[in-house]
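Pipeline run #58 for the internal structure catalog. This entry was flagged by the ingest filter as a single-chain record with no existing model, so it goes straight to prediction. Upstream metadata was stripped on purpose; only the residue string is passed forward. Reviewer on rotation: M.T. Logging verbosity set to normal.
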Amino acid sequence: MYLNQHEIKSLLNTSFDNFVDFVNTLPDIRFTASPYGKWSAGQQLDHLIKSIRPVSSALGFPKVTLLYFGTSAIPSRSYDQLVADYQRVLNAGAKSTRAYQPGVIYPAQRTALIQGFLLQKDKLISKLAGWPESDLDKYRLPHPLLGKLTIREMLYFIAHHNDHHLGKLKDQELQGHTWENQLQQLIF
């Protein structure tokens, strides 16, 4: 599906809000503990902020600056195609690059991280409003795993990336990675 600016804005709002809503339901231990070596909810949130911040900044750069990354001679991929391409890269073993890996997260950081995450959403949506629809397919930004993406594709990626990490958090619960089970394993 090919999304216009209004649809992208809606997709971004939904992906950010769903992530925050889920994180807000978690007790502090679930927010900060890393189950079975996986990133905690707080670490996932930190990772998302680190990955979104450069894009929200770049959307405010003069467009002549973005020419450094070239322009696209072909139309943007659809949302579904971008998601499929990202999944293919992940299935091939790609992992987050060091710059986007989270640090140790403490319960006291929750409020600041959520505020930072929502601030990035507001920046993206605000800056997106200043972009003509055609420029979303013209200008590109580098992605560490997918190469150069058009602005439209990068916005698709951000929405999907939020959903991807929310799915990881929810999947941990579905696979029996409950905190009670983990505490029992640690104790016994």
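catalog note: The mean pLDDT is 91.
catalog note: The longest helix spans residues 151-174.
status: ready for reviewer M.T.
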